[in-house]
Amino acid sequence: MASQPNSSAKKKDEKGKNIQVVVRCRPFNLAERKANAHSVVECDNVRKEVSVRTGGLADKSSRKTYTFDMVFGASTKQIDVYRSVVCPILDEVIMGYNCTIFAYGQTGTGKTFTMEGERSPNEVYTWEEDPLAGIIPRTLHQIFEKLTDNGTEFSVKVSLLEIYNEELFDLLNPSSDVSERLQMFDDPRNKVTKTLRMKISLNFDDEALRSQYTFFDTSNGLFLILVQRGVIIKGLEEITVHNKDEVYQILEKGAAKRTTAATLMNAYSSRSHSVFSVTIHMKETTIDGEELVKIGKLNLVDLAGSENIGRSGAVDKRAREAGNINQSLLTLGRVITALVERTPHVPYRESKLTRILQDSLGGRTRTSIIATISPASLNLEETLSTLEYAHRAKNILNKPEVNQKLTKKALIKEYTEEIERLKRDLAAAREKNGVYISEENFRAMNGKLTIQEEQIVELMEKIGAVEEELNRVTELFMDNKNELDQCKTDLQNKSQELETTQKYLQETKLQLVKEEYITSALQSTEEKLHDAASKLLNTVEETTKDVSGLHSKLDRKKAIDQHNAEAQDIFGKNLNNLFSDMEELIKDGSSKQKAMLEIHKTLFGNLLSSSVFALDTITTTALGSLTSVPENVSTCVSQISNMILKEQSLAAESKTVLQKLINVLKTDLLSSLETILSPTLVSILKINSQLKHVFKTALTVADKIEDQKKEMDGFLSMLCNNLHELQDNTISSLVESQKLCENLTEDLKTIKQTHAQELHQLTNLWAERFCALEEKCENIQKPLSRVRENTEQTSKDIINKTAFHSKKFCADSDGLSQELRHFNQDGTKLVEESVKHYDNLSSNLEQISQETQQRCEALNTSTVHFSEQWVSCLSKREEELQNLLEVVNQCCKASTSEITEKLSGYKAANENHRNTFLGQITTDEERLIGQNIELNETIKIGLNKLNCFLQQDLKLDIPTGTTPQRKTYSYPSTLVRTEPRAQLLDQLHSKQPELFMMVNCSEDNRETSQVTDEEKTLLGQHAEEPVGQEPPVDASVLCPSRGGVPFFQHKKSHGKDKENKGINPVERSKVEETTEYSVTKSRLPLRAQINL
Questions:
Q1: CB-based contact 971:536 (threshold 8 Å)
Q2: What is the pLDDT of residues 954-994, one digit of tens each?
């Protein structure tokens, strides 16, 4: 049964604990108030939430909320932070855990104030009782208090380490060389302890444990566990503190060496990180009587604040310091991110700060982070960054473990080694002559001597003041004695005078008593009369007011009842007339609505019939125009084909003529060559001239034919382009007409949809709809007429171009004939010239004849081939025109069929819309009739209710008889009178003995009271008042508006005034307040004064 709680505790320890994160928000300082900064941070201590407004001052929706373990607002005191955060951790340190507390945040947000605190003004309190003290002094004070109350043997060692510009310095080093750098190494030593084999409380098969420990089995069933240490800082001084009185001196000594400087954001800005370590050794005794030493360690870290160099005004050295600070804090943030995201590599070694805090972040240490923030809007970005890092650090998981306990022998061994080392150092230091005293003891001795000298001087001054006071008191005593003798003589004289005056006083007193008695009787009578008169007057006024009010109320009620009756009759008549008028108006309205609906029916029927008629006409015109298009195109194509056939026939005729001419020339040439050569020179010359003429004519004819071919190609291509343009225009016009028809159908659908919503505006919109429909019809007719005009224009252009080409062909033929005539003339000239060369030609005649024959054959073949190609080309052109005609006819037929189908569908849809619209109108008419009937019924019901109200519900004010009537009031008619003076004096004489006794008693009482008062005043003047204690001061831990010096730097910097974000530290002169003791002169004897 005992193993179950141990196993549950073990599982809980194996899971570990998250780092505790606390947020503290400081109040506004003077610089932020001057800058008119507003608050963007809200702290909820109960819900442990911090809300930050990221938007403007008016924007309350943009907020970021963070949840932490504890949240402290601006009004939180130092003692509250200490009790909530440090007290639980301090108990764990005493139990033997390693714990770490460090403050993180922007510069000037109160990290040093939280960790160290400040001294109260004028040093009213001691350092351990100061309400402004921070965590470090309170922790050390409570450590000594707790350990002393427990009654155990203990020892406390402290060390103070500074990390400045990534260099380590010992702030408690006794030497004057502050700049001595320390070195940091990994600890090669291992701490060896013995642990029993207990599988119930410790699972040795766990891989996490085997990664941290090394196990060795021994013969007696024990395990040797080697626990790895962290880092070793060579040369770091650990000072043993024996009592709490030494704590403040040590801390003040370390704080005096810490590097601080003034910036624009903080007058006492910490330029380095400080790590204050407290190691506690506590003695324990086991059940077997073995003495063990329990070790607990507490690290209190005051980090330097991250700062913006532009805002803090840091330059040169300060800028380098800020860079190193930001670099180390950035590494700390990366370590936190790596631990939260559980990355395989955590960059501990990139900064000495993270290397020292390695065990505190993700190790075996109980860690708490105090994140300090500013509430001002000026520091919004830095506040969000601090909260993001702090919120992320909540997810870091540590596994706190109790330090292994050392045996007494091991501890004594460590101490003996330390003593031997110190002896060696002492021997080396004492080799010189003279007395060797440590600097600390020498300073302490000098301090004691100076304090004793000051005390001696102060005591001597007090002795002189006492002697002066004694002489003054003796002189005062003699003066008082002389005055006392003079007073005794005066007292005897005054006693005689007093006896005589007492006689006269008795007589005057008796007379005074008589007069007072009479005046008292008169006064009592007067008071009684005054009371009776006032009562009578009040009664009269009340009764008259009540009576007049009652009668006026009756008069008003009568007038109101009469007025109500008249108003009731008038109201009933007016209401009946009003309802009758309403019935007539409703009847007129219903008749007008019926007429309006009839008009709606007729108008909308006409509208639909006209739209149908317009669509019919549109379809007929579209069909007519589209059917005329293929006819015109076919006529144009037929004309073109006829022209092409004519050209083919002309080409064939020219071919036959040329062949015939060539054959005739060939036959004539052969006959002439065979019959007569020389005698027939004339004929040969003629033949030669004819041949030349024929050749030239053939060449010109070939050129003309090529020109005609080019012109025909251009003409045919132009014709094809015109036909394609005609086809495209026709298709586009048909598409436009189709789109217009679709738009028209959509408009009719929208008219149908909006009819139910806009029935009361139909009369005004019908004219607009008629105009819109007419415009739509015109828009449909315009593209169709445009198509017809384009077709006519294209056909006219084709006809004109064809006529132009025919005319041009005729003109070319005429030109050809004229050129042939010119060739004849030229031929005759050439014949004449050929006669001159007859001799040369006769020799080459045979050769010429052969060449001529060859050329004629070649000419014949080329002419035949060219004519065949031309005819084939023309036939291809004719076939292409026929195909084009077929394509145009097909497109026109398809478009006409689509138009007819769409128009028929449109006509049917219009008929359907018309029928549905007429049905809707009939239903609307029925609804209006029903509404009219309901309205008449409601009017009748209202009339019935009104008559019921006027006849039954409205009632007259009936008198109840409870109104008071006029009546008479009874009052006293006689008044009290005072008794006569003689009678009053007789009554007084009857009471005279008692009166004299009362007078004597009153005089005795007065004398005794006067004597006691004089004694009290005399004693009050000469009595010594006790020293008054000052009222308790409510020591708030807010950042004081006066600005405070850090707690342990108070004595070295009295002239500095710390103000966050101040431009320059304000110099203040130290004013020592001296208290003057004023001793009042006593009138009592010296002995009486001393006794008092």
A1: yes
A2: 656 666 666 666 666 666 666 777 777 777 777 777 776 66
Q: Distances in Å between the alpha carbon of 696 and those of 690, 692, 797, 828, 869?
A: 10, 6, 37, 14, 22
The answer to whether the annotation marks 111 as part of a ligand binding site is: yes
- Sign of torsion, CA 834 837 838 841? negative
Beta-carbon count within 10 A of 266 CB? 25
Closest to 71 in 3D by CA, of 81, 83, 86, 60: 81
The DSSP 8-state label assigned to residue 351 in this structure reads S
Structure tokens at 976: 């009290």
Q: Quote the Cα angle for 798-801-802, to 5°.
A: 85
Beta bridge partners of residue 52, listed in sequence order: 41, 64
CA-based end-to-end distance of the chain? 73
Q: At what angle do helices 681-755 and 845-948 cross, to 10 degrees?
A: 10
Whole-number mean pLDDT of the chain? 70
Q: CA 775, CA 72: separation in Å to the nearest integer?
A: 80
Tell me: is residue 1017 an annotated ligand-binding position: no
Residue 107, marked binder: yes
3-state SS, residue 106:
strand
Burial 777-800 (b: 16+ CB within 10 A, else e): beebbebbeebbebbeebbeebee
16 in a known ligand binding site: no
- Rounded CA-CA distance 970/968 in Å is 7
Alpha-carbon span 972 to 970, nearest angstrom: 7
Q: Report how far residue 899's alpha carbon sits from residue 626's, in angstroms, rounded to the nearest whole number.
A: 10
612 has a pLDDT exceeding 80 = no
Minimal CA–CA distance to 910: which of 746, 739, 735?
Answer: 746
φ, ψ at 952 (rounded to 5°): -115, -50
Render pLDDT for 1028-1082 as a digit per residue (tens, 0 to 9): 343 343 444 444 444 455 555 554 444 344 434 443 443 333 333 333 333 343 4
Buried b (16+ CB within 10 A) or exposed e, 185-217: eeeeeeeebeeeeeeeebeeeeeeeeeebeeee
Q: Is 863 annotated as a binding residue?
A: no
As given in the structure block, the two tokens for residue 238 are 């650990």
Contacts of 621 (CB under 8 A, 6+ apart): 781, 784
Which two structure tokens, joined as six digits, stand for 21?
Answer: 């994160």
Q: Tokens at residue 443, please?
A: 């300073």
User: What is the pLDDT confidence band of residue 941, given thresholds at 50, 70 and 90?
Assistant: confident
Q: Which residue has the tokens 């941070």?
A: 41
- The torsion angles phi and psi of 865, rounded to 5 degrees, stand at -65, -45
For position 245, what pLDDT does the model report? 76
- Residue 425 token pair: 């150092």
- Of 224, 123, 567, 164, the closest CA to residue 353 belongs to 164
Length of the chain: 1092
Contacts of 318 (CB under 8 A, 6+ apart): 261, 263, 271, 312
Q: Which residues lie closer than 8 Å to 156 by C-beta, 6 or more apart?
A: 140, 143, 144, 147, 240, 241, 278, 279, 280
The answer to whether 962 is annotated as binding is no
Q: Residues 6 or more apart from 898 whose CB is under 8 A from it?
A: 734, 738
At 73, the amino acid letter reads G
Q: What is the pTM of this model?
A: 0.41
- Average pLDDT of the segment spanning 661-672: 65
Residues 998 and 995: their CA atoms lie apart, in Å, by: 5
Q: What is the 3-state secondary structure (H, E, C) of 115-175?
A: HCEECCHHHCCCCCCCCCECHHHHHHHHHHHHHHHHCCCEEEEEEEEEEECCEEEECCCCC
Q: What amino acid occupies position 537?
A: L
For 225, half-sphere exposure in the C-beta direction (CA atoms, 13 angstrom radius) is 17
Q: Are strands 154-164 and 239-241 parallel, antiparallel or unpaired?
A: antiparallel
Residue found under tokens 């478009």 = 895
